[in-house]
Amino acid sequence: MDKPVGLFAYPSNPVTVGQAIQTTLSQTETSISSWEENDIAGRFLLSPILTRIEDGNCLLADITYLNFNVVFEIGYAIGRNKRVILLRNTSLIGNDDLRREVGIFDTLGYQSYANSVELSRIITSIDDLDPLIIDRTTLNRPVPIYLVLPKVKADSEIRVISCLAKARLEKRTYDPQEHGRLGAADAIDEVAQSLGVVTLLLPSSRVDAEVHNIRAAFIAGLSMGLDKPLLLIQLGNEPVPLDCRDLVYSVSFPNQIDEHIAEFSPKVMALYQLIAPPLPIQPKTFVAKLNLGSSSAENEVPDLAGYYLETDEFRRTSRGEVRIVSGRKGTGKTALFFQLRNRLRDFGKLVVLDLRPEGFQLLKFKERVLDYLEEGSRNHTITILWEYLLLLETCHKILKTDEAAHMRDQRLYLPYRELVDAYGKDQYVSEGDFAERMLMLTQRMGDAFEAHNHAHTPNKQLTSGEISEIIYSHDVTALRNRLVTYLKHKEGLWILFDNLDKGWPPFGVTAHDVITLRCLIEALTKIEQQLGKRHILCHGVVFIRNDVYEMLIDSSPDRGKAAQITLDWTDQDLLRELLRRRFTYNLQDDTLKFEDLWLQACVSHIKGSETSQYIIDRSLMRPRSLIDLLRLCRSHAVNLGHDKIQVADIEAGETTFSNVLLNEMSLEIRDVFPGAQNILYEFLECENELTETQVLLFLRRKIEESNLQKVFDLLIWYGFLGLIRGTGEVTFIYHVLYDFKKLKGLIENKRAAGGAKFLINSAFWKALETKRLS
Known about the structure:
Elements: E1 5-9, H1 15-27, E2 31-34, H2 46-55, E3 58-62, H3 68-79, E4 83-89, H4 96-102, H5 105-108, E5 111-113, H6 116-124, E6 145-148, H7 155-166, E7 171-174, H8 176-179, H9 184-192, E8 196-201, H10 209-225, E9 230-235, E10 248-251, H11 257-275, H12 286-289, H13 301-307, H14 312-318, E11 324-327, H15 333-345, E12 350-355, H16 363-368, H17 375-401, H18 405-408, H19 410-423, H20 434-455, H21 464-471, H22 476-487, E13 492-497, H23 511-533, E14 538-545, H24 546-555, E15 564-566, H25 572-587, H26 594-601, E16 605-606, E17 609-610, H27 611-617, H28 623-639, H29 647-672, E18 689-691, H30 692-699, H31 708-717, E19 721-726, E20 729-731, H32 740-752, E21 757-760, H33 765-768
Parallel strand pairs: 1-2, 1-3, 3-4, 4-5, 6-7, 6-8, 8-9, 9-10, 11-14, 11-15, 12-13, 13-14
Antiparallel strand pairs: 16-17, 18-21, 19-20, 19-21
């Protein structure tokens, strides 16, 4: 766990505050330093303080007496993504009334101390260094300015408003007369989405000057921390806070405000143009107009519906006929996941549970729990874990989605409240994403299993009842009954589970991983059956890689029980239709034919091959690879100002793509068989046509004899090698509809007829620098 490193901010007056803090820091072993320890000679006073905040991971701040400099530093630390810990000395009177009127600090919260012992205990017990979560991506371009006003507006404030209007800078305002107290969350959100922030510092003669100036200090620090253009204007001749003298523009007369707004406006517009999409410049060539979209479904969700190609596999899945959707990397599993999810969401009364545990690993669960269990107990344990987890996630989804709706719909109100009561009795339900909640659950289980093991005979096998008692912290029967009652007001439940294989260790899929997948499928089946008996529609779909599915089938006694479809592509014309839809979506004309579009975008032939065929042949029949390759070719053409993709553009794109694909394919093979990592690089500078003997010779450089056939089969399975069946006829795995047994049979026939010869897939020729036989 990281140790707290940072700065302790506090006011210089009264001196009793600083004395207590200095005493504590000198007697406590800590990496927290006071602001007075910074060397400030000859430098802008604020500079070393902000540097210390920047270099640390937290800021401690005493807010017993609110001070402009300290509040500024609090805002700055929050903006710089640092953990802020606020403290109040209860032995001093303080200015609690001011703090309450300002309104920021009651929502941020603070800890209390009365002496150095208590303060030292707080410092040494800091274990939460997570900063506030700030949305830094949502920017309000239509209304870019955030203006913080005092309660009573004088000529200076009116002047600011007028100048912003003249500069045509639309503004959002905080006005105490309209909004009352300023909440920290609101202030952070408003500054974060702004392209510029304006506020004023009032002289002490003004009404509510102290309250407004403290708010202004927080807003100014936050703006600087978030790198927002800031205009901080000091009214009158009173000295500005020493720390911030170089950040403040002093004015004596309202008309002096004009020049400061004039200097401020271009800074805002510069940021506006930096983050704004470029002005629509009409492309000069047809190929420049084309936008292929993203090859990764996660990055094109908003546009995906506009050009998604609905295959029979999609329609079968949407009808609830499928339990498993499998496919190789880049074949469109995640695209189907998102399209199906969005389509189902259009039916307002369907509950759609979409789970994508990005980066989540069950490693701790396997290490801490499964070692205690025999194989039968493992299956039982993981199945009830998945069932329990899916039950909790369904409740979580409903309670979050219908939080407002149940208040408007009398039919939902009572069952919703009953579900809240049944669900909210576990720390598992705390906020966070699915991976965090699942981690919390497995951590709790691990602790419980270890405690049970220590309390009983070591390595004693647990009964099914003991396992269930450890896992469940809810009354599962009551929770399920409340859920069923609520779902009767819905049209059904869909559970979509993607990315399960991404959560597994990257160095090989293990037997435990396959058990985990099989138990998830069993849990989905049980939930469907349980809800089906209550006349509630329920479908569950799991999206996994093809190789993982094959391992599942090989290890399952009841193989074929779960309905499955494969997304691996075999029809080249479907890939052309996929491209056509992307072309026409951008051109907003769905009547255009592929052939006509292609000839406008690309030369017709390369090396004697039709160009679309040439590119498809090098895509391994994967949509992602096809889009990536074509994008690289197009990019080269556009950069050189070509009116269409030329032969040289295809060759340049192919070289880049081939090298990327070689690396990615090596990683895919490693995931299944770690010992074969980088085995493809053994084929560098070889001939592209190889006998089986030659292939095995290359493999023997790194692979033990006992594993040669397994790795050889992987090269066939992944489409790296294809069987040469005759002159000009090569069969890769996708030519036999991914029927590996059929391709193996064809290879055996060639062996029996005198020997099999293989062709390295042309997608790898450029990267491996293969030599073509004459």
